[in-house]
Amino acid sequence: MSSQRQYGTVVIVALLMLVGSSALAIANPTSSPPPAPDSVQKSCGIVGCKIKAKRGGDAVGDDDSKISDHNADDSAQARKVRAAKAALEARIAKYERASGTWYRCMNEFTPTAAVPAPSCGPRPAVPDDLTLSLPVGFNVATPPITNTQAGAIATARLKIPTVAPGIGPSPELNRWKMAAVGYPLWFWADGPTHVGPVSDSVGGLSVSLEAKVTKVTFRMGDGKTVNCAGRGQKWTRAVKPGVKSPSCGYSYTKPSLPEGPYRVAAIANWAVTWTVNDESGVINVPAVDTAELPVGELQVLVR
C-alpha cells in the first residue's frame, strides 16, 4: 500500500512538471528563423536607397523608428540639394540679367562726337562656379544646369570679333579726301563673319558652337540708321561711278564738315547656334566697331 502511494505521488509530480514545462514553453516559445519574405521593395532618395521586405502584407527588416530616421535624413539631404540648386540658379539669373542689359546697350548705341564708342562697359563675365556647393558624398544624378543654360554660358565664352564698317568708295581715293553729299556710298561688314564650329564644356555638358553674321546695323552719324541683311556687298574699283549698292547703301543729305567727320558705327549681329545633347538654340550677340567719315559738299562752278 505504501509503495502504491509513492508511485501515485511520483505520477502526480511528473504530470505537474510536464504541465509546468508546457506552460513555460507557451509563455517563452523557443525562437526559430523567420520565414523568407514574400516581396522586397527598394526605394531610392537623392543620395541613397533603402530596402524594405514584406511578408504576408507586414513589413519586416526595418522598424518604424529606423524608417522614420532614414526618411528624415533623406529629407534633410534633399533640402540641401534644393538650396544648392537655388543658389546656382541665382548666380546664373544674375549673369543673364547683366548680359541682357549689355546686349540692349550695344544694340542701341549711336555714335556722336561726345560718345565715339559704346559706354556699355565690358561684356559681363560668366559665373566662375557652375557646380552645386554640396558636402562631400552627395551625388546628384542630373546635371546642375539645363541644356539651354549651358548653351548660353558657352556662347558668352565664345570670342566674337568686331566687324569694322566698310565704306566705299573710300574718301582716300579722291583729291578732296571726303565723301560728297548726295553721292551713293556702299556699306558692308569689313572683317570675319563666321566662327566655328568650336566645342566647349559647361557644367559637365558638351556644347558645340557655330556663329555667323546675319545682319549689320549701320548708325550713320547724322542720326539715320541703315539695316542690312547679311554682311552687305563690298565696293570695288570695278563699280562704275554713281552706281548704288544692291544690298546696303546710303547717301548723305548734309555735310559733316567743317565741324569734323561723321562717326559711323557697324553693329554686327552674330547669330550663335549652340547644340547640347541633340538640343539646339540660337543666341544673337552684338559686336560694335566704328570708323570716321568726313562728308562735304562739292561746289560746281559754272562760267
Helix content: 25-40%
The overall average pLDDT, rounded, is 78
In what range is the share of β-strand residues? 25-35%
Low-confidence stretches: 1-31, 42-55, 57-67
Number of domains: 1
Largest sheet: 5 strands, antiparallel
Distance between the termini: 177 Å
Total helices: the number is 3
Number of strands: 13
> Helix-strand pattern, N to C?
HEEEHHEEEEEEEEEE
Supply Rg. Answer: 41 Å
Q: What topology emerges from the helices and strands here?
A:
Layout: H1 2-27, E1 39-44, E2 49-55, E3 58-60, H2 64-107, H3 147-157, E4 164-168, E5 179-180, E6 185-190, E7 194-202, E8 205-219, E9 225-229, E10 249-250, E11 262-276, E12 279-293, E13 295-296
Parallel strand pairs: 5-13
Antiparallel strand pairs: 1-2, 2-3, 4-6, 6-10, 7-8, 8-9, 8-11, 11-12
